[in-house]
Design brief:
The structure holds two protein chains of two kinds.
Chain A (H helix, E strand, L loop, with lengths): L2 E2 L4 E9 L10 H4 L3 E9 L3 E2 L3 E5 L5 E9 L12 H15 L6
Antiparallel strand pairs in A: 1-4, 2-3, 2-6, 3-5, 5-6
Chain B lengths: L6 H6 L1 H9 L15 H8 L3 H10 L7 E3 L1 H10 L7 E5 L10 H14 L4 E5 L3 H13 L2 E9 L7 H12 L3 E6 L4 H12 L2 E2 L5 H22 L5 E5 L4 H12 L6 E7 L22 H9 L19 E5 L1 H15 L9 H10 L7 E4 L11 H10 L3 E5 L9 E5 L8 E2 L2 H16 L3 E2 L1 H10 L4 H10 L3 E2 L1
Parallel strand pairs in B: 2-10, 3-4, 3-6, 4-5, 7-8, 7-10, 8-9, 11-12, 14-15
Antiparallel strand pairs in B: 1-2, 9-13
The chains are: A alpha+beta, B alpha/beta.
């Protein structure tokens, strides 16, 4: 569990539309889940993970939602090593340069 | 203020919200029927090429270099029949301030917003356009909100989109992230109403006119360098703005014989609004899931009339596979020393195959590259695919099934550009127009419009209309 203090940079979560409020003509799997939203901003009061908290976003909007993270980090990266890509690289050089070995 | 913010109430206020947020009265271009005055809209609601060159010049957008890909051309010639293999060039649009050609679209939209006195801009995009708008808004001192479709219902995000979130935040924007679904539009409208900001839609006349400089520069630079026009220009096609703007710019140079070729990645079978399919795709743009619907019905966008009308300009439309695009992305890096993002290399993949049908003294220009980084590069995208149960193998790319596997070609000679029957797209477009306007007869003006909007001829449109029992008044 994380605790947010006033002024901390946090991420909040909202349910925008419950399953029964969703638009018509959606694929079945999407119909079964709510439309959810996440946004970040500065905490306007204290709170812990799961609490409803009000934030002020970078554009100055004030909104409420469930606190999910304090100081959220970026989680994307360069992924796991993919051996197939190295195989492609080796093949490309082989086809173009004719397999001469570097001495 | 106690406005009804329910889904149906906000959607019901769509026209009113949009009018305030774009500042264009689209009614003046309407005929009341299927037809509208497209060229008048582009002239009066957009900016001239000279004005845009100045606006983009002031923000460091454009004038990107054209690079000749000599090693990739040599590789294509190794795979081609004797004497075949056109020279391949690429316009390095990654050199724009936000790392893609989208800076051109954003520059004009943000300039317009500032001139009209809006305090901020909002764009609904999961792509490079978000970073482009955020970057331009930073330069203009405007506030910026980007609305992204980013996660599935388990809050697993597409790595490519997570990187774009980071880029938008790096440029100082607020990013509102959503799970899968077309009701993103509801959140988007609510935000426009709440803030009074400008809708920096991808599909306004100024956005599309912003891309005209790309086609214009491309031909002028090419003439300066080779003393002639390119034979073919290859354009990655998704929402249609890249094709439309580039082709319009080419036309403005007076180059009459340049073939305009679109290319998309095959994502057939994956539903774009499906929570489960969302993370089974390895491309979030440049794919058929946008390319075909936007070609066959452009007026599905977030503006009343879409300024991006790809069928007006496309001579050919080619389909490539995910595995092929990743393969060519590796080739661009390993053989040309240019590490660029995969989605932007869709048209390069088609160019590699197309060059092999052309003579060696002919030329192809691929009109974009995009930046690359964490999340947005073959390694993270392929490893994400593997985590989502996608098989990754070597074989015949034609056996690739989107959402099931990614097939890298066993040899570069197996890379193909599959012809999409553009007449099929034209037919669907005409059928969609008739259905959406509920017509059983149309007037002369509509007929002329349908001919222009499909780059076809009277006989063609009449034959489609007669198949569906529609008469001319």
């Amino acid at each position: 569990m994380e605790i947010a203090k006033i002024g901390d940079w946090v991420q909040i979560h909202q349910i925008v539309l419950k399953t029964e409020e969703r638009a018509a003509h959606l694929p079945d799997d999407t119909k079964k889940v709510p439309l959810e939203l996440w946004v970040k901003g500065f905490a306007l009061h204290e709170g812990k993970t799961g609490d409803e908290i009000e934030i002020e976003t970078i554009t100055g909007r004030k909104i409420k939602g469930e606190l999910v993270r304090v100081n959220p980090r970026y989680i994307h990266d360069f992924g796991d090593y993919v051996p197939e890509l190295t195989k492609i690289d080796m093949q490309l050089k082989e086809v173009l340069f004719g397999g001469e070995k570097n001495e | 203020m106690n406005r009804d913010m329910s889904y149906s109430a906000v959607m019901g206020r769509k026209n009113e919200i949009m009018k305030k947020a774009i500042g264009i009265d689209y009614n003046v271009f309407e005929s009341g029927d299927i037809a509208f005055d497209y060229e008048r809209m582009m002239r009066e609601a957009g900016y001239s090429l000279e004005e845009i060159q100045r606006i983009q010049g002031d923000t460091g957008v454009g004038n990107t270099p054209i690079l000749e890909l000599k090693n990739l051309t040599a590789l294509a010639r190794k795979c081609a029949p004797e004497g075949k293999g056109a020279r391949i060039f690429i316009k390095d649009e990654a050199a724009n301030p936000s790392g893609s050609f989208k800076a051109r679209r954003a520059a004009t939209a943000v300039y317009h917003a500032k001139r009209m006195g809006y305090k901020g801009v909002i764009a609904a995009t999961s792509g490079n356009y978000g970073a482009a708008v955020a970057s331009q808004a930073a330069m203009a001192g405007l506030k910026c909100i980007i609305v992204q479709e980013c996660y599935d219902s388990k809050m697993i995000g597409q790595p490519e989109i997570l990187e774009k979130l980071r880029a938008c935040e790096a440029y100082g924007a607020e990013v509102v992230q959503l799970t899968v679904g077309p009701e993103l539009f509801y959140t988007f409208l609510s935000l426009l109403e709440e803030t009074g900001y400008f809708n920096a839609s991808l599909y306004t006349p100024f956005g599309i006119a912003g891309v005209e400089t790309l086609g214009y520069e491309l031909v002028m630079q090419f003439r300066e360098r080779l003393g002639k026009d390119p034979d073919k220009v290859l354009i990655t096609h998704a929402g249609g703005g890249n094709v439309t703007g580039t082709a319009r710019g080419i036309i403005k140079t007076g180059a009459e014989n340049v073939e305009v070729v679109g290319a998309s990645v095959d994502l057939s079978g994956l539903h774009m609004a499906s929570d489960k399919d969302f993370n089974k795709k390895s491309f979030t743009t440049g794919h058929t899931g946008f390319g075909i619907p936007f070609a066959t019905w452009p007026d599905r966008a977030d503006v009343p009339r879409n300024a991006a009308r790809p069928l007006r300009y496309l001579d050919r439309y080619l389909i490539v596979k995910q595995g092929e695009v990743f393969y060519i992305t590796e080739a661009l890096s390993i053989l040309e020393g240019l590490e660029r993002g995969p989605a932007g290399n869709t048209s390069l993949t088609a160019a590699f195959a197309l060059a092999q049908e052309m003579d060696q003294d002919q030329t192809i220009v691929v009109q974009e590259t995009e930046y690359t980084g964490a999340g947005k590069s073959p390694m993270p995208q392929i490893s994400f695919a593997k985590q989502n149960g996608i098989d990754v193998l070597f074989g015949d790319p034609d056996t690739e099934i989107p959402g099931k596997n990614i097939v890298f070609p066993e040899h570069p000679s197996m890379i193909k550009a599959r012809e999409f029957d553009i007449d099929k797209a034209r037919t669907s477009y005409i059928r969609n127009a008739i259905t959406n306007y509920g017509k059983n007869e149309i007037n002369r003006n509509d007929l002329d419009f349908l001919i222009k909007d499909t780059k076809s001829n009277q006989n063609y449109v009449l034959s489609v209309l007669s198949e569906i029992g529609v008469n001319i008044k």
